[in-house]
Amino acid sequence: VKVVEYGGGSLQAGGSLKLSCVVSGYDFSGYCMGWFRQAPGKEREEVATVDRDGTKTYTDSVKGRFTVSQDSTQSTLFLQMDSLKSEDSGMYYCAAGGSWCLYGMKYWGKGTPVTISG
Fold it and tell me: Distances from the Cα of 99 to the Cαs of 20, 32, 55, 72, 94, in angstroms?
């Protein structure tokens, strides 16, 4: 199983960025997938998830600004990030689970960096 994130970068506060995550080697359609992030010196936090039944969950700090979605095959996960703030900076990781989100993630990507200045 391979999980690869794309789309990280550096930009000014207020801008937008779209991350993509491609999962290969296993059919994760109908399973939990999500985005996590870790800022320097901080613990990794959950950003947004899509559960087996399609329920989307966001951490409070990104509600109204970030949107998680999947392509029709559910093998690609996206994270549209708008109105970015400096506190959104960090390494963003994509993960896929083997069941419902409450049981945790099983496969992780290596991350893509996001740096917001200003």
Answer: 21, 6, 13, 19, 16
Query: Contact, 104 vs 97, CB < 8 A?
Result: yes
Query: What are 47-92's pLDDT values in tens digits?
Result: 999 999 999 999 999 999 999 999 877 789 999 999 999 999 999 9
Q: What is the 3-state secondary structure (H, E, C) of 24-86?
A: ECCCCCCCCEEEEEECCCCCCEEEEEECCCCCEEECHHHCCCEEEEECCCCCEEEEEECCCCH
The Cα–Cα gap between 118 and 106 comes to: 35
Is beta strand 90-96 parallel, antiparallel or unpaired with respect to 33-38?
A: antiparallel
Q: Give the tokens for residue 16.
A: 């937008």
